[in-house]
Structures are given as structure tokens and as C-alpha cells.
Amino acid sequence: MSRKVEVKVLSRNFSFEVNDEIDERSFMELVDYVQKIFLDIKGSINDIDDYGVAVLGSFNIAEQFFKYKKISEESLGLLERIDSSITLSESQNEKEGNLINFS
Q: Higher-confidence residue: 103 or 95?
């Protein structure tokens, strides 16, 4: 199911069909985030129309997404290496008869 949510971005009204799995507060946080980026651009560049603001804002959001995606992938890789090291260490300790007791 979905519901209709009315929002205002760059002084224009928009109506979105939002999936019920997404709570309205989270959706509004996204709207506020986008609106802030758009207003920052509009305030820093003279003579830019709303279309230009939307395009530049989209690129800014995409840049941030890819930056955090890369950080997430690097973190996941590090966690996988740590997990492998722990697993290897536990296997070696079991073979050698060493017990690891964390309690």
C-alpha cells in the first residue's frame, strides 16, 4: 500500500505516493535534506533558475552518495578481513589445543 504525501520544494508543491513501509518522518527528513542542499546552492550562485538548482543539487547528492558508498565498502572489506583473521586465529588455537575463554 501507499499513501499520498504533499511537500513543498523550491516554492513548488509536489505530491508523492510513498510506500507504507517508509514512515512519514523519514520521508520528510529526505525532503528537508534535499531542500537544504537546493537552498544552499540557490544562496551561493547568483542568477540560477530552479532547474539549474535541481541539476546541481542532484550532482551534489550523487557525489555524497558515492563518497559514503566507498567508505561503506572499505569498512565492509576491513570487517571481513578482521573476521577472517579471528576465524583463522580461532582455528589455529583449536588445532594447537589452546582454548579462548571470553567469560
A: 95
